[in-house]
C-alpha cells in the first residue's frame, strides 16, 4: 500500500513539475525555472502584486463620483380618541399613514485637502514595493538554487571519486593478498592495505551522506519535497562574465538594487503620510445631486417619478475645529517617520 502511494506521489509530482530532461541530468536553468514556478515565496510575492494592483485601482474611488439609488417606505400608525355623546365613554380609533419615496443621488468630493490624490500616489508606490519584493524573492531563490546546484554537483563528483578510490583499494588488497600468499611481502603491508580499504569505505559512506544532504538542500531551494525523484546535476561550460567597473557597480546599486529602491520609496511614502495627516485638518468641500419623488402608493410613486419629481443640489463645506488634538497628534506621529 505504501509503495502504491509513493508511486502515485511521483506520478502527480511529474505532472505538476515537469522538467526538460537532458542526457544524464538536469541543467541549472531547469532547476531555476522549476524553483520560480513552485517556490512558495515567489507565489506569495505574486499574490502581493495582485493585491497591490487591486488597491491601486480602488484608490481612484476617492476621485471619482459615486452614484446611489435608494427607496424608502415609511409607515406610521397612531391612535385617535373620540367622545361619543350622550354616552360618556371614550372610544379609541386607530389610523395610519404611508409614504413611499425613491430616487438617485450623485455625490462628488470637490476638495479634501489632497487626501484622495495622496491615496492614489500611496497605493501606486505600494505597488512598486510589491514588484520590488518579488524581484528580491526571485533573486534570493535563484541564488539559493545556484548554490545548492553546484553543491550537488560537487557532492556527485566527490562521491564518484570515493567510489573509484574504494575500487582501487579493493584491487590493491586483492593484489597484496596474492603477494602475501606467495611470500613476497610482509603481513604488515597487507594490514596497511586493509586499513586503507576501511578508510575508503568510511569515506564513501560520508560522501554518500553528503550527496543525500545536497539533494535535500537543492529540493528545498527549488521548493518541493524529496520523494526520491531522480535528479542529477550536469557540468556545463562556464565562461567568465563581464565584470563592470566600480563606477558602474555604484550606479547599478543606486538605480537597480531593489532593497535601496524600496528604502527610497519608503522615505517618499513617509512624506505622503505626513501630507495626508496634515490634510485632515483642512476643510473639505462636497457636492451632491439628487433626483427623487414621493407618493402614498406605488402607483402615485410611479407617476411622481415621471411627472412630479424633484431635483436638488447640495454643496457642503466641512471645517474641523476641535477634535481633541487627535488630528494634531496624528500629524506629529507621521512627522517623526518623515
Write a structural description:
- This protein is an alpha+beta fold and 338 residues long.
- It has a single domain, classed as Up-down Bundle (Outer membrane efflux proteins (OEP)), CATH 1.20.1600.10.
- 59% of the residues lie in helices and 19% in strands.
- The chain contains nine helices and four strands; from the N terminus they run αααββααααβαβα.
- It has a four-stranded antiparallel β-sheet.
- The longest helix is centred in the middle third of the chain and has 67 residues.
- The radius of gyration is 40 Å and the shape is elongated.
- The N terminus is likely disordered.
- Give the CA-CA distance, first to last residue: 63 Å
Percent range for helical residues?
Answer: 55-70%
Low-confidence stretches: 1-24
Count of discrete domains: 1
CATH topology-level fold name: Outer membrane efflux proteins (OEP)
The number of helices is 9
Radius of gyration: 40 Å
Rough shape? elongated
Break the fold down into its secondary structure elements and pairings.
Layout: H1 2-16, H2 28-38, H3 40-58, E1 66-84, E2 89-111, H4 115-181, H5 187-222, H6 246-255, H7 258-279, E3 284-295, H8 298-306, E4 310-318, H9 326-336
Antiparallel strand pairs: 1-2, 2-3, 3-4
Amino acid at each position: 500500500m505504501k509503495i502504491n502511494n509513493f508511486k502515485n506521489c511521483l506520478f502527480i509530482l511529474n505532472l505538476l513539475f515537469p522538467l526538460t530532461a537532458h542526457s544524464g541530468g538536469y541543467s541549472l536553468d531547469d532547476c531555476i525555472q522549476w524553483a520560480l514556478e513552485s517556490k512558495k515565496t515567489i507565489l506569495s510575492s505574486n499574490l502581493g502584486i495582485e493585491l497591490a494592483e487591486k488597491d491601486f485601482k480602488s484608490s481612484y474611488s476617492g476621485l471619482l463620483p459615486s452614484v446611489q439609488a435608494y427607496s424608502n417606505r415609511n409607515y406610521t400608525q397612531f391612535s385617535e380618541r373620540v367622545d361619543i355623546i350622550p354616552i360618556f365613554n371614550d372610544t379609541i380609533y386607530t389610523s395610519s399613514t404611508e409614504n413611499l419615496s425613491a430616487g438617485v443621488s450623485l455625490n462628488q468630493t470637490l476638495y479634501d485637502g489632497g487626501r484622495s490624490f495622496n491615496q492614489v500616489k500611496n497605493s501606486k508606490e505600494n505597488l512598486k514595493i510589491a514588484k520590488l519584493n518579488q524581484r528580491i524573492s526571485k533573486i534570493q531563490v535563484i541564488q539559493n538554487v545556484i548554490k545548492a546546484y553546484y553543491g550537488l554537483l560537487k557532492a556527485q563528483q566527490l562521491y564518484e571519486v570515493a567510489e573509484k578510490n574504494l575500487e582501487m583499494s579493493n584491487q590493491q588488497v586483492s593484489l597484496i593478498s596474492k603477494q602475501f600468499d606467495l611470500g613476497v611481502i610482509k603481513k604488515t603491508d597487507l594490514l596497511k592495505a586493509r586499513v586503507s580499504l576501511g578508510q575508503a569505505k568510511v569515506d564513501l559512506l560520508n560522501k554518500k551522506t553528503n550527496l543525500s544532504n545536497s539533494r535535500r538542500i537543492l529540493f528545498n531551494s527549488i521548493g518541493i519535497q524529496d520523494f526520491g525523484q531522480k535528479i542529477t546535476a550536469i557540468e556545463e561550460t562556464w565562461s567568465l562574465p563581464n565584470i563592470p567597473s566600480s563606477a558602474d557597480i555604484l550606479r547599478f546599486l543606486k538605480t537597480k538594487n531593489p532593497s535601496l529602491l524600496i528604502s527610497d520609496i519608503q522615505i517618499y511614502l513617509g512624506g505622503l503620510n505626513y501630507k495626508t495627516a496634515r490634510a485632515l485638518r483642512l476643510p473639505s468641500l462636497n457636492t451632491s445631486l439628487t433626483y427623487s419623488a414621493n407618493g402614498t402608493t406605488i402607483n402615485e410613486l410611479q407617476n411622481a417619478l415621471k411627472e412630479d419629481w424633484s431635483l436638488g443640489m447640495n454643496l457642503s463645506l466641512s471645517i474641523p475645529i476641535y477634535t481633541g488634538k487627535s488630528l494634531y497628534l496624528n500629524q506629529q506621529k507621521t512627522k517623526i517617520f518623515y
